[in-house]
Specification:
The structure holds 2 protein chains of 2 kinds.
Chain A: E1 7-10, E2 20-23, E3 28-33, H1 40-52, E4 60-65, H2 68-73, H3 88-91, H4 101-113, E5 124-130, E6 136-141, H5 147-159, E7 165-169, E8 186-193, H6 202-223, E9 231-242, E10 255-257, E11 274-278, E12 283-285, E13 293-295, E14 309-319, E15 321-324, E16 338-340
Parallel strand pairs in A: 1-14, 2-15, 2-16, 3-4, 3-5, 5-8, 6-7, 7-9
Antiparallel strand pairs in A: 6-8, 9-14, 10-11, 11-12, 13-14
Chain B: E1 7-11, E2 15-20, H1 27-38, E3 49-54, H2 57-62, H3 77-81, H4 90-102, E4 113-119, E5 125-130, H5 136-149, E6 154-158, E7 175-182, H6 191-212, E8 220-231, E9 243-245, E10 262-266, E11 271-273, E12 281-283, E13 297-307, E14 309-313
Parallel strand pairs in B: 1-14, 2-3, 2-4, 4-7, 5-6, 6-8
Antiparallel strand pairs in B: 5-7, 8-13, 9-10, 10-11, 12-13
Helix pairs in contact in B: 1-6, 5-6
The chains are: A alpha/beta, B alpha/beta.
């Protein structure tokens, strides 16, 4: 027990640093903003990018304003949360007059950027988000063995020393993955906070702009043949959510996030640590057995979803060296063991 | 103190209202008022009728600032006297109802004191908002509150500007006071912000009780920030903003903004400086709700007001 309890090692079957995994080029990239219409960094970044229409040499870049109606009203959504509409089931729902706008839109986006699960889908989708929680910059993904995403993460962490950069893994199979980035072959959300919804802060905007620049930069170098050395990264694996204490009859919340937890995302929470301070002055503590890392602490949009905070385990993930797969299949050097990976969905059933 | 400032006799205060949810997504007031409606023990004071009210219940239910129109701009004479009809915006109808309950505005029957609880995304800390520089009662109450919460600071914003002043919900009372605490995102309840607002209301009610009980409050001076001008974002011909509050100014509420200081930063990183003629004290910097009101921040000038002493008389 103790500090190690919150961390589990995770090693893939390769162990030699000399092994290089060859992966197809990331040729078609999409950057999406305004998936939630009041998360303004992404809205303004996409608007600015669309004005520039800059080309990239080794990949095509598509920028998308995901939910234009919600953006126009500066609301998270108009009828239903767009970023919950990308499960295979919802994407296949027949459309009628009564279908909520966001479901119609999710199917449009699936046509544009997908279809999800097929060869035609975008190679990489980066979906831009803000949070009211003090989370710094987080890449959120459904995979902990998507080497493209994890190498991008490693790159951002190294090149952005002033902003904390973390990787959060939601272990959900692709068909049930509900958010926009799951439409692409590779995908992650880039989530930055804290920023109030409906507000644009220059520091947060600049951090996201830099995060995108570094991401596209990495893709360009990868596509150009640069070999990226493997190593070990730390990943936060989503475990569970905790709701606010609520009144039994009215369902209204009866406490706020405790001042000692507020703004302390990713600070290890131990059993007995304060979680909530009730309006009558009582401290409610964390009753779990395992120390876990809190995130999305006091995210505005999650009150209605019954989430006061989320909790994660931290684990080390070994990532291999990777290099772009060239057409002729010839690689550098003769001594190295090459492992080829076919295009596949990154389910990582061997994950903890 | 000069002999010009003496102790003025004022009628004791009988009826007090505490408004929350005037903007439905400003959660400290919504939460406090709902709590007090459910159990008013904390806000009881002897000899005083204190009524908490959720002013905009539909907006609170949707957790949005307003449904049709901003309630805190709706208490205009035209709106309050308009004949009631079905097409009226919800908030105008609501303003008329509230005016009936707690006004009528300008009449002797109006509530003595109305507190209106608000939050802001700006880094304003605890702020008390006044609409008149000559209301001795309010100035004395503000002075009392500032001393009570010291060393925690509390700024006083005075909006007496003929063009920038607006018809607030609290303005139907004889002594209106705005309580504005930030920074807090809309729709979010932060414990520290909640407790700060709760403490201010407590001290305010204590003051009223002491005043009613016959305590004499000596003439005093109150430092205020007087609203002078508002500054909008730079915008393109479509009305979209083309720059953000500069990182140097962001969160710098109440700190001096000097001519030549950075004010905005464009999306590609250029700086736009403040070109005004003199130093101002900005506040409401980057308030979410003010993008649509063409306001990036409000400029104020520092001033010291003097208040007469006050003492209650009972009829």
């Amino acid at each position: 027990m103790g500090a190690d309890q919150g961390e589990k090692s995770h090693y893939f079957h390769f162990s030699s640093k000399m092994e290089v995994i060859n992966l197809p080029a990331v040729s078609r990239v999409a950057v999406c903003g305004g998936t939630h219409g009041n998360e303004l960094s992404g809205v303004y970044l996409v608007r600015e990018q669309q004005k520039k229409k800059e080309g990239a040499e080794t990949f095509s870049l598509t920028t998308v304003m995901s939910n234009p109606r919600a953006v126009q009203q500066c609301r998270r959504y108009t009828e239903t949360d767009l970023n919950r509409c990308f499960t295979t089931a919802t994407l296949g729902t027949p459309i009628s007059d009564r279908t909520p706008y966001e479901i119609v839109r999710s199917q449009e986006l699936n046509t544009l950027l997908g279809p999800k699960g097929t060869d035609e889908a975008m190679d990489l989708i980066c979906d831009l988000h803000n949070t009211t929680a003090n989370m710094g910059l987080c890449l959120i993904s459904y995979s902990a063995c998507d080497w493209i995403c994890l190498h991008i993460f490693k790159h951002l962490q190294k090149e952005m020393p002033t902003v904390p950069v973390r990787y959060i893994h939601f272990d959900v199979p692709q068909s049930e993955a509900y958010s926009l980035e799951s439409v692409g072959k590779h995908g992650f959300s880039m989530e930055i906070g804290p920023q109030p919804h409906g507000v644009i802060r220059a520091d947060i905007f600049n951090a996201m702009k830099e995060g995108i620049r570094l991401t596209l930069d990495w893709i360009h170098h990868f596509n150009s043949g640069v070999q990226f050395d493997g190593g070990e990264v730390e990943v936060y694996a989503m475990v569970k959510n905790i709701d606010y204490p609520r009144d039994m009859e009215t369902h209204s919340i009866t406490a706020a996030i405790h001042p000692q937890l507020q703004d302390h995302d990713f600070c290890l929470l131990h059993p007995g640590d304060p979680l909530f301070l009730t309006f009558s002055g009582k401290t409610e503590t964390y009753k779990g057995v395992e120390p876990l890392y809190p995130f999305f602490v006091n995210e505005c949009a999650y009150y209605e979803k019954g989430i006061a905070l989320s909790l994660a385990r931290r684990k080390r993930v070994a990532i291999p060296s990777i290099q772009v797969k060239t057409d002729c299949g010839k690689e550098n050097g003769g001594e190295e063991l090459k492992l080829e990976e076919k295009e596949r969905t990154y389910d990582c059933s061997e994950d903890v | 103190m000069t002999s010009l400032h003496s102790v003025v006799n004022l009628r004791d205060a009988r009826k007090v209202a505490i408004f929350g949810g005037t903007h439905g997504n400003e959660m400290s007031g919504v939460t406090l008022v709902n709590m007090w409606i459910n159990n008013g023990a904390e806000i009881q004071r002897s000899g005083l009728m204190i009524k908490p009210l959720i002013t905009n219940p539909r907006a609170v239910e949707k957790c949005t600032r307003y449904v049709d129109t901003d309630l805190n701009r709706a208490f205009t004479p035209d709106n309050l006297s308009a004949p009631r009809n079905e097409d009226m915006p919800y908030e105008v109808r609501r303003a008329q109802e509230i005016n009936q309950m707690f006004g009528p505005k300008g009449s002797p029957d109006a509530y003595d004191i109305i507190f209106d609880l608000h939050n802001t995304t700006s880094n304003m800390g605890s702020t008390l908002i006044l609409e008149s520089s000559k209301d001795d009662f309010n100035l004395q109450m503000v002075n009392f509150i500032k001393q009570a919460i010291a060393p925690t600071s509390c700024s006083v914003l005075l909006n007496e500007h003929p063009l920038l002043q607006y018809s607030t919900s609290r303005s139907i009372g004889k002594h209106p006071i705005g309580l504005e605490v930030g920074p807090q995102p809309q729709g979010v309840l932060r414990s520290n912000i909640f407790e700060s607002m709760r403490a201010i209301v407590k001290h305010a009610l204590d003051f009223i009780e002491l005043f009613n009980g016959g305590m004499e409050f000596q003439p005093c001076m109150v430092d205020v920030y007087r609203v002078s001008e508002k500054m909008d974002y730079p915008r393109d011909k479509n009305g979209n903003i083309t720059a953000m509050v500069h990182p140097n100014l962001q969160d710098g509420d109440w700190k001096p903004l000097n001519p030549g200081d950075p004010m905005f930063q464009t999306f590609d990183g250029s700086t736009i400086n403040y070109e005004g003629g003199s130093t101002v004290y900005p506040t409401f910097i980057n308030e979410a709700a003010y993008y649509e009101k063409q306001q990036a921040f409000v400029m104020t000038k520092r001033e010291t007001l003097t208040a007469n002493g006050i003492k209650a008389y009972k009829i």
